[in-house]
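Run: sequence + calcium ion -> complex structure.
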Amino acid sequence: MKIGSTIQILALGMIVFPFSIHAETHWELQAVYSDGTLAGYSKYWKVGADFGDSNNKVVITGIVLNNPEDILDTQANYNMIPGDIGGQWQIYVQGLDGDHAGTAVWIGQNYENRPPSGGVGRYTNEEWVAELNRINFSNGHQIRQGDLVRVTGFALQYNGKSNINERHKKHPDIDTDFTVEWLEQTPGLPEAEVITLADIKDSEDKEIFDGTRNIGCEYYQSRLVRINSVHIVSGTFAPDSDSVYIGDDTGRTLRLKLGLGETFNTNNLNSTFDVIGIFDQEYGYVDGYRLWVTGYNGGQTILGIEPPVRGDANGDRMVNVGDLGILAANYGRNLKVEGVDSPLWRSYGDFNGDGVVNVGDLGILAANYGAESSYSADYAKVFVAQSESDNTSEETTADAICSGLGLPLILMLGMMGLMLMKLEE
Ligand SMILES: [Ca+2]
Ligand SMILES: [Ca+2]
Ligand SMILES: [Ca+2]
Ligand SMILES: [Ca+2]
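>> structure
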């Protein structure tokens, strides 16, 4: 059993960090001194390092938390107005599992638009559109929230965050580009970590700052969080607004930054609601935190985008026989090879976002199966029916053996499935 457990752990490790090239963790990239600063002062040596040497680029892996156009106006807008950045593009990438941090990746169009530089380093509108095409697409796939990606680029500190960017320069002769590579997996948005305002604010409503980043605001920076049972204290609810403050019944508050979607035009929220967003630091080194709400469906109870329920194929936020039926009907399909758009993979029963519907997804479904019915009984119904109509499939036969067995074995088989896939690669 000991060997078995070790293999399972190794298998999980391979899934979580599927590529073995050297990469920074978000955790080390975001390290700060006790005053909240990082670079120029080299808390992590690559932050602010010489951009003439491409070896100084960092490499991070994680899940994309937002679609760029949902939070910043990406439209080309070449101009010389001081301070007008023109088109902007940004994604937040959250670290996987134990890498409890996240990193923003940013680019703007009108670099160096202030006199006297005369606009050297700006993108023309044509160049900007071309640049967006370069970073929005990876192997023909459009980068979307919920994608697993690898980002390679130079890091620079900005108000207590280490951002990946071009060092705010479009150099004709130096490679300051960053790249966003889709790792051919679309696991979907991670579960938002539920926090309370007391986790990030003290009793006097002052930000809790810990330079070791183990508690308080730093611990959640650039990650997806959920704060339940809040109300609006003040501010104007509108697209792109950064004036709304939420509060709880202890007097603690938090500033919101609202996304650009038109649904932010109307506030249908109940007096008390839950909010989901990216916990961001924008206005200071030990304070200036806010919650960036990237989307809103116009509902009454939740402000923000709810991550998908693991194991839910039909999108009703329940995991039951309906989802099992969908998974069974698509069992064995390689959606990636078939050319199915990756955001749709979940609706075919691919819950780990690798593009294949197999025993790994069955394990996820089993682990999240709703309490209102019996997984084993439903499984027997759905999969026995399936295997009778398709009794030549070796995999289906193997799975049929699982029916009637307990959840732990199903899960173990799920993990073995994942491990075998890795060995085949
Ligand atoms: Ca910080
Ligand atoms: Ca560039
Ligand atoms: Ca469902
Ligand atoms: Ca899968």
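>> summary
The pocket of calcium ion (ligand 4) is lined by residues 350, 352, 354, 356-358, 360-361 (CB under 6 Å). The chain has three domains: 19-182, 193-303, 321-424.
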